[in-house]
């Protein structure tokens, strides 16, 4: 895949364009329509106060680079949708709030309310808004975007652009706010138009096979109560730099990725909590696969959702090595280009959904595309420098998205400044007292054990057993 000049071109002022919403984004759109909220959030924790007018100007400069964030959804016949780029800048939605305490529980609830209390009307408003919450010692900048526009790379990109714009304004430095050219983002245009016909047919057949397997695979998931959907909560778990380095060493020793080690740790937590389900079944965990490297364009600068949900399936009776092997085999399979069969599968669901009532379509797609009550994703390290807003240091940065049904818990692992963290989002009805005891504590223990070099693991396990 070579880099193209198209994304590095700049749009002429006043440019106007309409293009189809990618088919795989309909999965997120249906969630938005039926749930009423499908927001993603980038949260920047700042050690100090920002100048309000400078922040407003910085946001306008950063947004000017991304025409997709000055657009609306335009319904078409039979529940198809176009994205309509608007030539005139839409109003900026920036809200300032004060909080009289730094107490985490109070701040936490204010931040939660900002993300999930209010949805977007994506046919009228910008698909992004900003909240600046100021406490006695800190500021919290939230960038809240509709999920069907946003993936981790896009969120990182915008957060970086806002920080760079603010810094440039404070210190009188240049900032290039010329709009980035929006390429044809439709699924066929960006991802599959260059494929020969035989490849398209092969992936179409593969999609039908995956579609059939959705109904017959005897998969299992986390042993959580079958309760109605409840409110959401989140917590940030810091695993630290030492554990991350240990996992990297162990992954290198096992010739796998850190992502595979994370999946193995989750698998071991599940196996300990559901011994009766271990056997001739597969544990299903939902993940998101980035399609950015599958495009023929250089999509790094584009604000875009270029992820497709897919299932990680791990053999419940397998040994640690067999589980790692299964995880690596699946990832290599998708990375080789076979993820396009999964993409065609989502397109198949989207096509079928147009011939049924909206709520039925959403329930059908949700049940079979997201056939898991646990989501585990690993966006990896933040690829852009995020150090400061001018003279105000950035203390921390996380990004997270909405937890959609039937999932009840989501873990988003990321690396920031050499530390492994996880943002944990959960359904309060599934975990009334929070997931710390049932999920987080066991996961920490499993990760710590996996971070121990293999040569030291057996003596440590024997010592533990003798206690």
UniProtKB/TrEMBL annotation:
<dbReference type="InterPro" id="IPR023213">
    <property type="entry name" value="CAT-like_dom_sf"/>
</dbReference>
<protein>
    <submittedName>
        <fullName>Condensation domain-containing protein</fullName>
    </submittedName>
</protein>
